[in-house]
Amino acid sequence: xxxxxxxxxxxxxxxxxxxxxxxxxxxxxxxxxxxxxxxxxxxxxxxxxxxxxxxxxxxxxxxxxxxxxxxxxxxxxxxxxxxxxxxxxxxxxxxxxxxxxxxxxxxxxxxxxxxxxxxxxxxxxxxxxxxxxxxxxxxxxxxxxxxxxxxxxxxxxxxxxxxxxxxxxxxxxxxxxxxxxxxxxxx
Length: 187
Known about the structure:
This protein is of the alpha/beta class. It contains seven helices and five strands. Strands 2-1-3-4-5 form a five-stranded mixed sheet. Strand 4 (166-171) and strand 5 form a beta hairpin. The chain is globular and about 50 Å long.
């Protein structure tokens, strides 16, 4: 059931027909912004359109829940690279309504892992190595709280330039309406 060959077939036509030409840009975000948002499928096209973004306007980092849980993990590293190397001057943390991370149940995820072949031995080894799966798989109480927590992690990061505003927003997953939670210009 892989989509691989369908994607490759489409890609050959895409390139042959030079459909890529309308997407050509450089690596620097035109609007000098970096966005951390959720990987939710409803946001793939909705979020850029709701925020008036075109290809090349912003660096967009996606992960589960738009959460930065590790201050020195890969998401924060990507955000800092966007600022220091790619000239982003504003940070947007954009959560969304109906986020699965608000209802994430670590026990359910672990049982799903086991059902799909991850052995109890592997899980035990990870736990005994100091990886607390229940904490690692933790979500947040509600979507707004998730945005606030992530904004706070970014704002307090010792490597974030003090002049960079960090905004927090919540997008409605259906309508695209944006709710301002934290105005980084006033924080």
